[in-house]
Amino acid sequence: MEEGATVTVSDGWVFTDRVELRGLAGGQVARTFFRSGVARPFDADAQAFLNASLQKMIRSGMFATERVTRLLQKGGVEAVLAEVERLRTDSNYVKRVYYSALLAQAELTTAQLTRVLERVTTDMTSDHERAVLLLQVLGARALVEDQRVLVARAAARLNSDHEQRRVLEAATDIPTLSPRLVAAVLDALQTVNSAHERSPVLRAIARKGGVTAQTSEQFMAAVVAMGSAHEQRQVLAVVAGQPGPSSAAITAPVLAATGKMSSAHEKSQLLLELIAKAAITDSTAASFFAAVNSITSSHERGRVLEALVARPSVSDGLVASVLESAKGVTSSHERARLLLRLLQAHTMTGATRALFIDVAEGISSPSERNQVLAALVLAERR
């Protein structure tokens, strides 16, 4: 203690035991002991009181930063881990304070970080305190891939969907995601049951180009497992909306996942986005029409098919598939409107003409049916 400095260690406010420490010249310390407010000699009982009080302060997390500094100088990371174990405290806060000081002061190797994360996820029970530490690991310094994967795996041991989402989003907050890191994050997401919490992580992966031929199967499984069609569409829209031409290797899994969505409206919205991106070609047609044919709403299915036939350069094969799908549009008005739009954009010849007539004759309303067949005759005369 500096000369003139004073410290009082007390176990309460009134009629308490306390020790008053005062710094003297030459580094000496004067100690005065009070028992229930009455001055007593500084004897063995006084020393025992001071020692017990200091241990309580240490176990409360006080002086953690300074103690970790000394422990690192004396015995390195192992000394700090041993000290945390010696504290024998159930306080998640105290453990977090010590581990936080360690992370802030030491450059941990992958092996050392593995040990720390194992301690954090097994010895601590508070998801919030554990998440704070995992976020500190991710934000403190540039991590190598192995270390980032370790944090993602540690996040899987958290019970709170919210805290898991916070950590996993941070784990993906780098310019480029490797397939190995994406796999680790997706593994951890299996324990995130909330679609609202899972969705932002999946969208983050998609925005960073993490959905590739190598990762798409696991990624789409995580999307399909969400209970919310709205969140599913939000995620798949990000995948479909990535810049650059859409490849069948990615578009086909997106379409397959779309077909498993429960909401006809959400399905149609996503399919319209894919059509606008020119992602529907002969190579993706089978997956596209499987998704379209899973839409039971005549209005929603009809508007998707109308959007497709309005695209330029639609092949006869796609036109035939549109007509086959139109058989599932049970509303006379919706089917008639679709067929009329088809006539405006394409010429019916050969097999497509015969299929067109077959679909038109399936319209239950005579007036709607006659309108479509008359339009076909007029189109052929032009």
Summarize the main sheet: 4 strands, antiparallel
What percentage of amino acids are in beta strands?
Answer: 5-15%
Separation of the first and last Cα atoms = 103 Å
Chain-averaged pLDDT:
90
Number of helices: 19
Structural class: mainly alpha
| Widest β-sheet, arrangement of strands | 1-2-3-4
Give the % helix: 55-70%
The number of E-state strands comes to 4
Number of domains: 4
- The SSE order reads EEEEHHHHHHHHHHHHHHHHHHH
Report low-confidence residues grouped into runs of 5 or more.
Answer: none
Shape: rod-shaped
Q: How big is the Rg? A: 34 Å
How would the blueprint of this fold be written?
Layout (H helix, E strand, L loop, with lengths): L5 E5 L7 E6 L5 E7 L2 E3 L3 H16 L4 H24 L4 H14 L4 H14 L3 H14 L4 H11 L5 H11 L7 H11 L5 H13 L8 H9 L4 H12 L7 H12 L4 H13 L8 H8 L5 H12 L6 H11 L5 H14 L4 H12 L4 H16 L1
Antiparallel strand pairs: 1-2, 2-3, 3-4
Helix pairs in contact: 2-3, 3-5, 4-6, 5-6, 5-7, 6-7, 6-8, 7-9, 9-11, 10-12, 11-12, 11-13, 12-13, 12-14, 13-15, 15-16, 15-17, 16-18, 17-19
Give me a quick take on this structure.
This protein has 382 residues and is mainly alpha-helical. The protein has helices at 44-59, 64-87, 92-105, 110-123, 127-140, 145-155, 161-171, 179-189, 195-207, 216-224, 229-240, 248-259, 264-276, 285-292, 298-309, 316-326, 332-345, 350-361, 366-381; strands at residues 6-10, 18-23, 29-35, 38-40. Strands 1-2-3-4 form a 4-stranded antiparallel β-sheet, covered by helices on one side.
